[in-house]
Amino acid sequence: KAKDLGRNTFQFYSSEMNMATLERLMMESNLRHALTASEFELHYQPLVSLANGEIVGVEALIRWRHPDLGVIMPDRFISVAEDTGMINPIGDWVLFEACRQAQAWIDEGLALQTMAVNVAPVQFRQAGFVEMVAGALGTTGLAAERLELELTERTVMHDAEFTLGTLSALNRMGVSLSLDDFGTGYSSLAYLKRFPVGKLKIDRSFIMDLERDADDRAIASTIVSMGRNLRLTVLAEGVETAEQLTLLRSMGCGMVQGYYFSRPVDALRMTELLRSQPFLHEN
Ligand code: C2E
Ligand code: MG
Ligand code: MG
Ligand code: MG
């Protein structure tokens, strides 16, 4: 729809701006409007301990509930938000809302160890990011130890010295850090030692064909062993089948996340899951 409108308007504005500029401006104002109109919401997916099946944490995942277009998934708007700079106010909102919800669950007596929040590269690099995180924790009352920021290898490897400073400041506050989509970017393994990272999330692309692909099994198992040797928690993303779960367990993987246990769900359904702990088993 936005595209059609852009194409018609193009006739009138072609002398001043090109199509890409116009689309970008429209998208930026759409995102800005979405934020003020409270069209964003967070869904949550359980992070499950393989030791006993307990939901020990959740990952917050943004959705855009558009009044005409329905639910828009993050892959369709996060990169535009990054290009237009709208990722900063949107990311700030995500962080506050995730911390608020986590503390609300804790106030209800639900045992939630970790609220994991995705942080975009631009957002991580914005001036005052550490202060913003401190502000979200202070305002909501969430203990820093419960917050985990998910960064990709791309985010942390670019300008490693700057990254080290920011990660250290967050780590001193008590916030934990995890490397998202691990294995898809390029990481210098030396930095795994230098950076105060506590968790590696094996990317879903290595888990998808785990039952059939011996190379994927070798990669997953290598990441698990390396993580254990470096005393890092290793979590496998995108676990969908019992066979994948069995393989990951035999490799010694500590945590999993995926449709096998639960898709991302809204706050209400997540409350039910935290209350009932349906995957818990004796060990
Ligand atoms: P991610 O951080 O790697 O999040 C995991 C994605 O994998 C989520 O997609 C989740 O729904 C999906 N997933 C989990 N388990 C399975 C499974 O078993 N099978 C399949 N096929 N998919 C599974 P989602 O929610 O669409 O988010 C996509 C990406 O968008 C995220 O990848 C993250 O990079 C980004 N994103 C989401 N929320 C935020 C946010 O609040 N801020 C920022 N900066 N990025 C976000
Ligand atoms: Mg993530
Ligand atoms: Mg991921
Ligand atoms: Mg991913």
TrEMBL record:
As its record notes, the protein acts as a catalyst of:
3',3'-c-di-GMP + H2O = 5'-phosphoguanylyl(3'->5')guanosine + H(+)
GO terms, biological process: cellular response to nitric oxide
Gene Ontology molecular function: cyclic-guanylate-specific phosphodiesterase activity
**Stretches assigned to the EAL domain:** 24-278
Superkingdom is Bacteria
Protein name according to UniProt: PAS domain S-box-containing protein/diguanylate cyclase (GGDEF)-like protein
What species is given as this protein's source?
Azonexus fungiphilus
Of the parent protein, the shown chain spans: 281 to 563 of 563
